[in-house]
Amino acid sequence: MRAALEDGGAVDENTAERSATPQADSEAPTFAGAVEAASAGSAEVELRWEPAVDNLTPAEAMVYQAFWSTDEGQAVRGILGAVSLPGATSVKVSGLPEPEGTFYFHVKAVDAAGNTFIIGRTWLTEFPKGSLSQQITAEFVTKLY
């Protein structure tokens, strides 16, 4: 740090220096996964969850990724359908390929360091033929993928 000469001839004697190293974060957040899935329109599903808990990232900074698949057991590694805003507790997955059928959804919590909690609930959601505008029902798939 350099001293600077001001207009009046005074010299800045500030010599305080500070440095810091960010705290390392290698611990994934704790997250139960989505707790609800509901129809949000034609070929669109809204997923809801309770906030994840992390050792360093506050709930309002946590981001969530929603994945989907048409194959049982593949939602964890499926197609990324949506990324939430920080602190959100729901997200809409739109653009599903068919307006009717069976879809599996999985939500992952991601902390500020990029650690991801991947174990959680996977939702099985069915769009029965001719019921696109109705509230759909979702049930837990008991097997964790």
Brief rundown of the structure:
With 145 residues, the protein is mainly beta. Helices cover 0% and strands 35% of the residues. The chain has one domain (34-140): Immunoglobulins (Immunoglobulin-like, Sandwich).
Folded structure, characterized:
By secondary structure, the chain is mainly beta. It has one domain (34-140): Immunoglobulins (Immunoglobulin-like), CATH 2.60.40. The chain has no helices and 9 strands. The chain has strands spanning 34-41, 44-49, 63-69, 79-83, 90-93, 101-110, 116-117, 122-127, 138-140. Strands 3, 4, 6, 7, 8 and 9 form a 6-stranded antiparallel beta sheet that branches. It has a 3-stranded antiparallel beta sheet with strand order 1-2-5, with no helix packed on it. Strand 6 and strand 7 (116-117) form a beta hairpin. It is elongated, with a radius of gyration of 23 Å. Residues 130-145 have low confidence and may be disordered.
What is the overall shape?
Answer: elongated
The main pleated sheet reads as: 6 strands, antiparallel
- Average per-residue pLDDT, rounded, comes to 77
CATH class type? Mainly Beta
Could you give the order of the helices and strands? EEEEEEEEE
Q: How many H/I helical runs? A: 0
* Residues in β-strands, percent: 35-45%
Specify the CATH homologous superfamily. Immunoglobulins
What is the CATH-assigned architecture? Sandwich
Derived structural class: mainly beta
The helical percent reads under 10%
Whole-Å distance between the termini? 55 Å
CATH topology: the name is Immunoglobulin-like
What is the number of domains?
1
> How much is the radius of gyration in Å?
23 Å
Structure summary, number of beta strands: 9
